[in-house]
Structure formats: C-alpha cells, structure tokens
C-alpha cells in the first residue's frame, strides 16, 4: 500500500515530514518534484512503521511537492500522494480591504481587494475558521503601479465569522508566497434596532483635543462596533449599563488629527453572535483649524432682530474656499453648508435665517473648507451673537435641547402647578397621539411628560410603516438628548431643565402592564422638560 503523508503548510523555520506504513518497512525514501536525485532516505532505528524527515531551516528552495515510498524484503511500495510545502515570508505582506466597506448587510455581497506594490502576478485569498477555504486569481495592474486581485464574496450570512487573509506570489514560483496580509473580518449587519452615536464635543471638533465617541441603545446590546466611511478598521468594545435599560460603549479615539474627519456609524451585537444590528444614523465629524485662513462673519441687519424678520449671515474669506459652513454654539444638528461664490476677489456665502424665531438666538461661527478635504475646516470666524429682540420676559441663553414640532399652533393657557392638560387637547396633536402620550402635567413653565415605549414585539405589530419609523427615530434621538425632530409645521420649543440643572439628564424609565395585553410589559419614558412659551405665537413667559 502507499504510505500516507499529512498535508502541511510550512510557516516556520523548521519542519518535520513523517511517513507511516504497515509493519515490515526496511527503508524509507523521500523524493522532491523536479529533483532528479533522491532527496533523502531513512532507515528505521528498529522494527517499525514510521520515519521522520527533518528540514532544520526552511529556505525558498525547500518549497515544492514531495512524495515518499518504502522498501520491504519483497520490493518497493507505490509513491504517496504529493505533499505541497509552501514557504511564506520572503516578500512583504500585501494589503487586504473590503469594497465598498467591511460592513455587509446580511445576505449581501462584497468585493475583497488584495493589493501590493511588489508586482505579484498571482494572489491567493484564504478564509479562516471551520469552513476554511482558499481561492487564487491572476493579478491586474492598477493605474498607480500596483497589482491587485478582486475576490467576490457572498452572499454573506451571520451563521459564522467571515475572516480572511491574502498572499501574493509569482507565477514561476507558485509555492513561495509573501507574508500573510493582516486579517480582515467582515461585520454582518442585520435588521435589529439601530443604536445611537454621538460625541460630547459636538460635530465640529478642534485639532489636538481628546475625542470620544459614544454608541448606546435601549435594546441591551452587550457589545458595540464602530466604523468610519472609507475605513477598514472595525474596533469593538463591550457594552456597559450607565442606567437601567440602556447599554453603551465608549470609543476613545485619542487626540484629534486630520484622520478623524469623516462619517461614522456604530452597531450593536449580542453575545458571541456574528450578526450585528442595523447601523446608527451617520455622525459627521469636522476638524477645525487645518486651513490657515479664518473667515469673517457678519449680519446684514445688525446683531439684534425682531421675531418674524428675515436675517442674512454673511461669511467671507480672501483665501480660496469651496464651501462655507455655519455652526451654532450648542446645536446638536450638523452645520449648514453653502457653496461659495466669488466676488471681487473674495469668496463668500449668504446664510438666510427667515423668518426669525426665538430659536434662532445664539452664538454663530463660520468655517471654510476645500472640496478636496471636505471634513477639514479652517480656523473659526470670530463669534457672532444673534439676539432676537421684542420677546416678553427675560432672555434665555440658547441651549442644546430637543425640539418637537407637533403642528398644533394653539398656545396652552397658563396653568397652576400640577394642573394636567385635558386628554382631548392631547388627541388634537398628531405627534402626541402617534406616540401615545399618557400624561402631560405642568408646574409653571415645567412639564413632566410620560411616554410609553413599547417592547419590540408590540412596536413591530402595532405601529406600521412611517409611524413605526418615526417612533423609533424619536426614541433614539430622545435618549441621545440632542435631537431636533420636525413634523408638520413648527409649534413648540422644548429644552431640558432650566439653567443650573444638568443640561441633558437622561429620562427615567418605568414599567407597567398593558391592560389590553396583560402578558405584555410596557416601558414608559418619563422626562422633565422646560417649555419656553416665548416660542409660541402670542406666548408669554409664564
């Protein structure tokens, strides 16, 4: 019978080849393909059925195809099946990346790009894990002088992990490979509820400051992953619970530099499952201070305007600028963007705010950027404070908060502390009705709002289509404490607690049982808000 040799991929400096046969072998021979002479021979030290051939230091010329056979008193055996020895490491490792992204929707396809500047004309892709496999493709020349191979992968499913490496080699030496690329793991994104992603610093960050991104959810994910548009890294962190029902992970990114500008998303996962949630809404980070210019910001009607007037903020620069951005201090939303216009050798953009309401009051800055690096901004302009005059009562400094627009423009009457709004008034407001607000009680200019947050099964079965989408988006943004939701026409302005209180304390959660479905547990969100009656037509300070 022919002896059996184990398949071996040689990755180190020494290796042993072992052959095993039936008893009675008196001598073992080892042949290497392409070598006319016997490569090695061994005699067993005693009666036996095994022999070991050693390579003490692997070199390129050791790569190849080997067979062994043995002799007995009656003759020689057949040769074994070939054993392929591959030497890795003589050349530098190629790069392995996923196009367009290492994040793939469950059931989707992706292209893996293996590339190198060393002129390889063959590339090999290996998949690690229980279903280990490999594929080889010819290399193609790229415009920048590299060679690459594009490996289609898919459909990608969450049943197991998708981890890959690739190698480069030359056609005339097919068993001498480069060092392996760094591993690339695909993240399989599913349909479970998306988490929220935010940064305490706001969308415009300054070079040199420490940056941390926070991914959190009420679903109770045990781990979170972060991705950046165009990037290949997918850092993962375990989740922790800052308070009941919520889970989050912090992603410290270090000191801010040019590499931090861009769009980010995060994902939540459970345990060891290879499936992740749907992606969060994108978080855009803009790095200020990388262009030497500092634009100027002015207001055409003066810094004090009356409600209902039109006002234009003018941002100008003497340096080439493709886009201007207008940022309001403390605002959670992204800065406004306008393409620049060239006039008399200067670049400018006019930001129109009309009609002016109390919400427009605050401190503004503008920045410039180039189309080649849209996430890298100039130095900020000098701050411009816009005061909305003619409002009754003392002015409040602008603060980051939650804006709810219900389409109901009636002004609530001034009520004594603890007086509850009648249920019929709530039913007139489409957003409140959709969310199923249970109670709104007032204490002067303070409201305490109770909103039921249903379990996942209830939301999926009771709320359909756009209502379900709006409900989930509002819930995500409410927990983030920095959203601005607009539905129908503008009506009411809510902010967190007044000055002196924590600017953005998270809401408290309470549980109750559904009367219509006793086995269904309802989750109620209770959060205190401050009502600025100056935001209502004809409003008073209360």
TrEMBL record:
Keywords: Cell membrane, Disulfide bond, Glycoprotein, Immunoglobulin domain, Membrane, Receptor, Repeat, Signal, Transmembrane, Transmembrane helix. GO terms for cellular component: plasma membrane. Residues 99-189, 200-288, 300-389 form the Immunoglobulin domain. Gene3D superfamilies: Immunoglobulins. It is found in: Cell membrane. It comes from the Eukaryota. Residues 1-23 form the signal peptide. Residues 136-148 have a biased composition (Polar residues). It is a single-pass membrane protein. The keyword Cell membrane applies. Residues 206-273, 306-373 form the Immunoglobulin subtype domain. Residues 128-148 are annotated as: Disordered. SUPFAM superfamilies: Immunoglobulin. One of its GO terms (biological process) is cell communication. InterPro entries: Ig-like_dom_sf, Ig-like_fold, Ig-like_Receptors_ImmuneReg, Ig_sub, Ig_sub2, Immunoglobulin_dom. The sequence shown here is derived from an EMBL/GenBank/DDBJ third party annotation (TPA) entry. PANTHER family: LEUKOCYTE IMMUNOGLOBULIN-LIKE RECEPTOR SUBFAMILY A MEMBER 5, MHC CLASS I NK CELL RECEPTOR. This is Ig-like receptor S1. It comes from Bos taurus (Bovine).
């Amino acid at each position: 019978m022919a002896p059996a040799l184990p398949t071996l991929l040689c990755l180190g400096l020494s290796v042993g080849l072992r052959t095993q046969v039936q008893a009675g072998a008196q001598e073992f021979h080892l042949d290497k393909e392409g070598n006319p002479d016997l490569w090695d021979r061994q005699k067993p030290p005693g009666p036996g059925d095994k022999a070991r051939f050693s390579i003490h230091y692997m070199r390129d010329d050791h790569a190849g195809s080997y067979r062994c056979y043995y002799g007995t008193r009656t003759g020689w055996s057949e040769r074994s099946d070939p054993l392929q020895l591959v030497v890795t490491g003589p050349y530098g490792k190629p790069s392995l990346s996923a196009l367009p992204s290492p994040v793939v929707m469950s059931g989707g396809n992706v292209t893996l790009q293996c590339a190198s500047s060393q002129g390889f004309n063959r590339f090999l892709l290996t998949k690690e894990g229980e279903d280990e496999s490999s594929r080889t493709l010819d290399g193609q020349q790229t415009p920048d002088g590299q060679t690459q191979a594009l490996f289609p992968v898919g459909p990608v499913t969450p049943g197991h992990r998708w981890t890959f490496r690739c190698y480069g080699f030359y056609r005339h030496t097919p068993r001498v490979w480069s060092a392996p690329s760094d591993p690339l793991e695909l993240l399989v994104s599913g349909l479970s509820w998306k988490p929220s992603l935010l940064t305490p610093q706001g969308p415009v960050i300054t070079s040199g400051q420490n940056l941390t991104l926070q991914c959190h959810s009420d679903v109770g994910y045990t781990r979170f992953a972060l991705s950046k548009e165009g990037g290949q890294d997918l850092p993962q962190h375990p989740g922790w619970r800052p308070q009941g029902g919520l889970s989050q992970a912090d992603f410290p990114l270090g000191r801010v530099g040019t590499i931090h500008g861009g769009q980010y998303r995060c994902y939540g996962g459970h345990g060891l499952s290879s499936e992740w949630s749907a992606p969060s809404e994108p978080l855009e980070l803009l790095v200020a201070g990388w262009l030497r210019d500092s634009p100027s910001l002015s207001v055409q009607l003066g810094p004090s305007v009356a409600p209902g007037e039109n006002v234009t903020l003018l941002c100008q620069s003497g340096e080439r600028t493709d886009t201007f951005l207008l940022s309001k201090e403390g605002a959670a939303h992204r800065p406004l963007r306008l393409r620049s216009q060239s006039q008399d050798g200067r670049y400018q953009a006019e930001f129109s705010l009309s009609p002016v309401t109390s919400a427009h009051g605050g401190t503004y800055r503008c920045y410039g950027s180039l189309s080649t690096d849209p996430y890298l901004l100039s130095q900020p302009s000098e701050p411009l404070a816009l005061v909305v005059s003619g409002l009754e009562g003392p002015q409040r400094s602008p603060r980051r908060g939650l804006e709810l627009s219900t389409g109901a423009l009636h002004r609530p009457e001034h009520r004594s502390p603890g007086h509850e709004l009648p249920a019929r008034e709530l039913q007139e407001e489409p957003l409140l009705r959709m969310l199923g607000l249970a109670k709104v009680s007032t204490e002067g200019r303070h409201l305490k709002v109770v909103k039921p947050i249903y379990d996942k099964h209830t939301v999926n079965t009771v709320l359909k289509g756009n209502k379900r989408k709006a409900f989930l988006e509002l819930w995500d943004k409410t927990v983030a404490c920095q959203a601005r939701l607009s539905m129908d026409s503008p009506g009411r302005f809510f902010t967190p607690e007044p000055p002196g209180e924590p600017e953005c304390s998270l809401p408290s959660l309470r549980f109750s049982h559904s009367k219509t479905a006793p086995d269904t547990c309802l989750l109620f969100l209770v959060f205190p808000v401050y009502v600025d009656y100056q935001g209502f037509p004809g409003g008073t300070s209360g």
